[in-house]
Design goal:
single chain, 526 residues, alpha+beta, Lipocalin, Immunoglobulin-like, 4 domains, 8-stranded antiparallel barrel, 4-stranded antiparallel beta sheet, 30 strands, binds heme C
């Protein structure tokens, strides 16, 4: 059973190949999963009662999680498996030993590849487990105590030097992992959970997703967009997808591709939008889809996506989501089944309905000069959800993300640059004195040295270029730079500054961006 890894294929290449595989449907000639388990896994994994296999049958995880485990079998243990067989297995294992939607709540950012997320786990979990990879990688698995313990043993066996590293050499890591973390993890993330049983029996059939979906999105550096995604069946749990939309500035956003559904709700799409391959990682449940859509080669370039199936009744978004007291503006409501006159709350008047369909209502709004600053619940008939911010002046500007990592790249190497992409969020002060989010505003952008060290090393000059009107930062080339002190690379430590104009008054916000080296190891779950 044990064979050598195909020569010339590095672990990271394999991970990339594996990731593409996850988003594309398996071929028709696919072998049955049980046969594959028997023929390719059973050589190392012992058969148990009830058709089970040691280790494999005692864990539940996401499609990405299963993919990573099998990819590890390939890179570390010499498993040989065809791409088609691996696809079949990932699909089967994610369907039969997956996570219920509620079990992924709060940690979907890792699947959606929001790599600038600052995680909030308890100190012990962060220090013991969240220092090499995300805490989400842990939170996206379910196992009994014995399997958590084996995982700990595997970590120390595979990477014995972990005990000498920071946050290990100051403690008895192995002892604490076994005696403290294992019981904690088994309690927090148990294999048996009523939510999973319930989901398995209640999950809707995949064809419930076929139809037209009205969507709304936001792309940092570009703004809001909306449109229709058409989903048609193309085999069992696989779909053809076409996307037709528009950015707020009127420019089109079109493309098509395919998608596959894991675990009854884990939607993974692969669409080419205006020539660029993008991945969709959505939770698709009932009449709602939500998640993120990002470029395959640049996961930092992506948009928040929310959609409602046409025929259902849902109000998704108000674009733009703010209005200045004493002013008039056009806003668009996006959703499905929108009928009746929209209401925007106290002090906001609908001057004119410019356009109305079940998916879109465009209205001209006027806010009274004395309208109270704060959030208004927006309603259309009985539908509610989004809010409109009314403001009289901007109180503060926040750079989002507040802390981020960009990466140098190219420069003759094969690793692309990882850009910084920012939004300037305006905040107001409500009548109660509490801050509230007004929304994303156009801004003028620049970077500055974060500290004296960065100033002395001229990081601003070398680390990359900020596009002043979009907030898109493109890092410098990878590799040593002879123009820098000691020919160091183009890394840098920068402040990101956004200036927003509010009736002639400029307000600034500040974020922090580290420009660092390439990410060599880039698995599906960070
Ligand atoms: C050549 C031997 C070998 C083959 C073949 C093999 N495995 Fe493994 N597997 C191992 C070893 C060794 C471990 C324990 C160390 C580890 O987790 O990497 C393991 C552990 C696992 C685990 C537990 C991982 C964890 O995080 O606890 C899973 C799941 C798994 N294998 C799945 C599979 C599947 C699915 C196949 C067939 C496609 C397979 N393995 C084939 C050797 C193998
Ligand atoms: C020294 C760094 C390090 C520490 C500390 C660490 N991990 Fe990991 N962990 C790794 C690496 C590397 C992998 C990736 C293996 C692979 O390529 O699949 C991994 C993989 C995993 C996986 C996925 C395994 C699978 O196949 O499903 C889980 C779950 C996990 N770690 C949990 C933990 C937990 C829980 C802790 C704390 C008790 C922890 N890790 C601490 C480095 C670390």
């Amino acid at each position: 059973m044990k064979r050598k890894l195909r020569s010339g294929m590095s672990a990271s290449l394999l991970a990339v190949a594996a990731c593409i595989a996850l988003h594309s449907p398996h071929s028709l000639a696919a072998r049955d999963a049980q046969t594959i388990l028997k023929e390719t896994c059973q050589g190392c994994h012992t058969p148990e009662a009830d058709n089970a296999l040691s280790r494999i049958s005692h864990q539940r995880k996401t499609p990405e999680g299963w993919l990573m485990s099998i990819a590890r079998m390939q890179t570390m243990h010499g498993l040989q498996i065809s791409d088609d067989d691996r696809r079949t297995l990932v699909k089967y294992l994610a369907d039969t030993q997956g996570l219920a939607p509620s079990e992924t709540d709060g940690v979907r950012y890792a699947l959606e590849r929001r790599l600038n997320t600052v995680e909030h786990f308890d100190d012990q979990t962060s220090q013991m487990c969240g220092r090499c990879h995300s805490g989400a990688r842990v939170a996206l698995q379910r196992r009994p105590a014995q399997e958590w313990e084996r995982l700990v043993n595997f970590h120390l066996g595979q990477w014995p030097s972990l005990e000498y590293q920071a946050l290990s050499r100051d403690r008895d890591w192995f002892d604490m992992a076994r005696k403290e973390m294992v019981p904690l993890l088994a309690k927090r993330y148990p294999l048996d959970n009523p939510a999973w049983k319930k989901w398995q029996s209640a999950a809707p059939k995949a064809d419930a997703l076929v139809g037209d979906w009205s969507f709304s999105g936001h792309l940092p550096g570009k703004g809001e967009l909306a449109g229709v995604m058409t989903v048609s069946a193309d085999g069992s749990d696989t779909f053809k997808v076409s996307v037709k939309g528009r950015y707020a500035d009127g420019s089109p956003f079109n493309g098509d591709g395919s998608a596959i559904l894991y675990t009854g709700y884990e939607w993974r799409g692969n669409v080419t939008i205006d020539g660029v391959t993008m991945r969709q990682v959505f939770a698709a449940q009932g009449n709602a889809m939500q998640g993120r859509m990002f470029e395959a080669e640049h996961d930092e370039r992506g948009l928040d996506f929310v959609a409602a199936r046409q025929g259902s009744n849902r109000l998704l978004a108000v674009q733009p989501g703010y209005l200045k007291a004493g002013s008039e503006t056009e806003v668009t409501l996006i959703g499905s089944g929108l009928t009746g006159k929209p209401n925007f709350g106290k002090g906001v008047e609908v001057v004119e309905v410019v356009e109305q369909s079940p998916e879109r209502i465009k209205v001209k709004l006027k806010a009274a000069a004395n309208a109270q600053p704060g959030l208004r619940a927006v309603t259309v008939g009985t539908l509610k959800g989004p809010s409109l911010s009314v403001y009289s002046k901007i109180d503060a500007v926040k750079v989002v993300p507040e802390f981020s990592v960009a990466r140098i790249g190219e420069g003759g190497g094969s690793t692309p640059k990882v850009q910084g992409r920012f939004d300037a969020e305006a905040w107001g002060k409500g009548a109660d004195g509490k801050p509230y989010r007004i929304g994303v505003f156009p801004a003028q952008w620049k970077v500055e040295a974060f500290d004296d060290r960065a100033k002395e090393d001229e990081d601003v000059k070398f680390a990359g270029t900020m596009q002043a009107d979009t907030g898109v930062f493109t890092p410098g080339d990878a590799g040593p730079n002879p123009a820098r002190k000691m020919s160091t690379n183009n890394a840098g430590n920068l402040k990101v500054i956004a200036a927003v104009d509010d009736a002639g008054k400029s307000l600034t916000g500040e974020g922090h961006m580290i420009v660092t080296v390439q990410r060599w190891n880039n698995p599906p779950i960070p």
